[in-house]
Amino acid sequence: MARTLCNNCSFSISTCICNAIEHVNNRVSVIILQHPSEEKIAKNTAKLLNLSLNDCQIIKGENNDDFSVLKTLPVSSTALLYPNEHAVNLDDSAEQPSVKNITHLIVVDGTWKKAYKILRLTTLLNQFKTVSFKQLPKNRYAIRKASRADSLSTLEAVAHSLFLIEQLNPAPLYNALNELIQKQTQRMPEHVKARYLD
Fold this sequence. Notes:
Elements: E1 29-34, H1 46-52, E2 56-60, E3 78-81, E4 88-89, H2 96-100, E5 104-109, H3 112-121, E6 129-132, H4 154-166, H5 171-185, H6 190-197
Parallel strand pairs: 1-2, 1-5, 3-5, 3-6, 4-6
């Protein structure tokens, strides 16, 4: 039987996080390219960003045809958040002039394997500079395990990026994440919960 979903946040009624959502006025437009397999994952955090940020859109797909919106973005001031050897570090003081110029931030939402597939199939992304972090913030999202040590949830990566680019206070976003973690773990047996949260 299908779960009853909250009409506002689209999480199940038992894990509704509406009381923790605070609307945030971000200057930088956030465009989330979401792999289709992420949409129905209960612990996906892109949904929290879309609920919280006033300028955020989620586009589902895997390739150029799905992400034609990329053709409309300003090349000089759009950045793709992805760690590679060419990435500008948002937390590098020497890079601040180019960081402050960012008006649009593209984020790929999916596992590392799926994100790499999107990058490979979406050649439109090649026109944009890539950005990353010299030093990762503490990973707060313990309830979804990742294969790489440099993994952050989509929400954490965007929150830290907006803090570095426009000094946006990340607390409302982290509060929503904390509420999601609390709701997702509330019915776990203690020994299972301990595996994630200890």
